[in-house]
Amino acid sequence: MEAPLILAAIAGLLVVVSLIQPLAARLGLAPSVLLAVVGVGIGILAAQLLFTTRTDAFNEIASVFVYLPVDSQTILYVFLPLLLFQTTLTLDVRRMAEDAGVVFVLAVVAVLIATAVIGLALFPFAGVSLIACLLLGAIVATTDPVAVVAIFRDIGAPARLGRLVEGESLLNDAAAIAIFVVLLGQLTGTEERGSLMAVYSFLESFAGGILLGYVGGQVMVRLFAPVREFRLALVTLSVALPYLVYIIAEQLAGVSGVIAVVVAGMVINLSGPSRITPDGWNYLLDIWEQIAFWASSLIFVIAAISVPRLMVDMTWYDLALVGVVVVAALAARAAVLFGFLPLLNFMRVNQSVSTPYKTVILWGGMRGAVTLTLALGVTEHDMIAPDIKSFVAVCATGFVLFTLLVYGTTLKPLIRLLKLDKLSPIDAALRNQVLALALEDVREGVTDTAGAYQLSPAVAAHVATPYHLRAETAAQANALAEGIQDRDRITLGLVALANRERELILRHFRERTASVRTVQTLIAQTGRLADRARAGGRFEYNRAARQILGFPLSFRIAQNLQRWFKQERWLAGLLADRYETLLLSRIVLDELIRFIPQKMSPLLGDRVGEILAEILNQRRDGTELALKAVRLQYPDYADKLEQRFLRKAALRLEENAYRSLLQQNLIGAELHSDLQKAVSESRTDADRRPRLDLGLRTETLVSQLPLFADLPGDRIKAIAHLMRPRFAVPGEMLIRKGERGDAAYFISSGAVEVRTGDMRVTLGRGDVFGEIALLKGTLRTADVIALGYCHLLVLSTHDFMQLLQKDEHIRDHIDAVVQARLDMNDPARHQTGSAPSAGQTAPKEQVEDKQVPPPAALRR
């Protein structure tokens, strides 16, 4: 078959699928349904032209469609990775995670049950082996991502319903293909594993696909960094990813390529926006939308063209078998939706799914190109008997046509019948409020435009009045204030603010005032805020906000590395990341607080606006405190980072000024290029973040202590050799009451609080704590908590005692400290009323224990 004919056939199909779009819109049908009908028609027409005895003029082009130059494996390898990857890119992965239990049941459990039910239902009537019946069950058990996603998006299904069926259609391909491979091997005699081994193989394929997809996605995310300024290279990398992941998974690793591609797409979905500029990300999505349109249309048409060939031997009895498949598939799906899902809901494994949603999911199980391709693969297999080939081809093809022509054309009326196309009360009220505000803005804009262009006021009023009337109608219809509780409006507002926060962060990324790492961290945080707000409203949002200000596990690990191995580079980097993240977060929170009275209060009401402002102000205050804690310890470094932020903002303003001059034709392209080159060089320097020095050199810390300040250099070195520097963060528990003392602590910088009973003692630079438990050999009798970032010098019990024996000056100082604390804890002083009352802060000399040995004990 000549290449020009094949190219001409593909080009002709592209023309057909392009014209189908407006035709489907005019007829009110989903394009996928019309593509299937047209594909079948092309297949029938090509067969008529090829085998007619009237003329041979069309034989060459007709043979291309009758004897397709691609087999089933080629169709899967060429088209399926693209379709899966693009669908995953556009999913709201975080929202879909809320229904992970439902998606898993629909994608895996439902496929297993459907395979078994369909196979057992067919076995008494089909006249073929049970394995062949189960093979057909696996082929038709998978809903098709091309058909399902396209149809549900075309009919405007509710967001959650769309997420459920999209998640199902993406993942159940993997389950069905894995079962198909096992059953095909048993049918042909190439696979003789038992049931347990088959289950193990299935689980291994799933788990391996997840791991491979995650690794592939992470590798690709890191490859985005050097090419994020080059959009064409970026798109090229993204096209390579699904093919590489799919082929490596299927051919080398022996795991599920479908799962690998889906997981890789999810990684790109979650990490891509913070790794690529917003403009580059939108460009990437636009290109992928075009790629997916070509791929989905071609795979559907090509698969549909093969339908006449697959059904050429169909009989009335075969039609009855198709009916058995339809009934069995519906029964299996109903059993999962109305039997298994309520059980999961009872066990609180997932959110409940309403009966109307279940009904639509039941009726929306369209099959399509994947099922046809698997059936085509069976007909191409040399080791399968002809009667089984015919059985699989006819039943699978008939079932696909039934689901598309019946389910696909009646799904939209069913959604209308169940009133799932109606907005919820809060969404309807919000729509009216948005409409009223927007139309009033339009009216004002029309009036201002007429004045600016000196148009007649009567003309302006004629155009503006309808907008004013529509705005009044929307305002009158709005029942937001009366019908919706404040709690729901607050939740709605918090989710909206989290989404707005994400947009502001990406704007800073677009303007290059924030680094990739900072943006990635903040994007993940806003995602958690939105998720928690949806799940638990104000309470969960505040809880998530407090957790954001805490220190993650990586910070604790870095602290331990510094503490035990004196490796401080990672810790310094994390602390620098923290300050940069907190700085941008505070800037964005200030913008959000100003956003509330401008947009949120008019939309949700003044009372809700005030509550939202209070919540954000609390977040802002907490962020500011965390910033001040770092600034107090490292003021010079904080200044450098803030100067760096302003420098980046200045470079962005400079770049915009040059671009504006070019657009106004005030400078030429050559001069603009020269100016832009200078800006780029300056930006490269500004992007280089200064390195943070934690200041944990032991000798320096020792010399900063007033106790050791007058000692000679060799003595300071000797003492420094005994001590171990430790970096503490705000809120860190340094000593816990009831623990056995193993070290004393000298404060080189920062402050700690000693908590003993109802009293609070603040210790600062130059103070020592933890020594009394060492001298007495008893348990700690107080908690000691860092109030800010602290530089501490830690001395073990043995070294502490050795230091006291060798240095009389230090021993005398410790004697004085202990005596002062004995005086403060003297019961006689409590009786005279000089001790602090409950809840007061005691002087810093009062610490751990009342029963301190006399100073002379230090000398023994």
TrEMBL record:
GO terms for molecular function: potassium:proton antiporter activity; sodium:proton antiporter activity. It is a multi-pass membrane protein. It is found in: Cell membrane. InterPro entries: Cation/H_exchanger_CPA1, Cation/H_exchanger_TM, cNMP-bd_CS, cNMP-bd_dom, cNMP-bd_dom_sf, RmlC-like_jellyroll. One of its GO terms (cellular component) is plasma membrane. Gene3D superfamilies: 6.10.140.1330, Jelly Rolls. Residues 707-811 form the Cyclic nucleotide-binding domain. GO terms for biological process: regulation of intracellular pH; sodium ion import across plasma membrane. The chain crosses the membrane at residues 6-25, 32-51, 74-93, 100-123, 129-152, 164-185, 197-217, 229-246, 252-270, 291-307, 319-347, 359-378, 390-409. Keywords: Cell membrane, Ion transport, Membrane, Sodium, Sodium transport, Transmembrane, Transmembrane helix, Transport. Residues 831-840 have a biased composition (Polar residues). Residues 827-860 are annotated as: Disordered. PANTHER family: SODIUM/HYDROGEN EXCHANGER, SODIUM_HYDROGEN EXCHANGER 7. This is Cation:proton antiporter. The lineage of its organism: Bacteria, Pseudomonadati, Pseudomonadota, Alphaproteobacteria, Hyphomicrobiales.
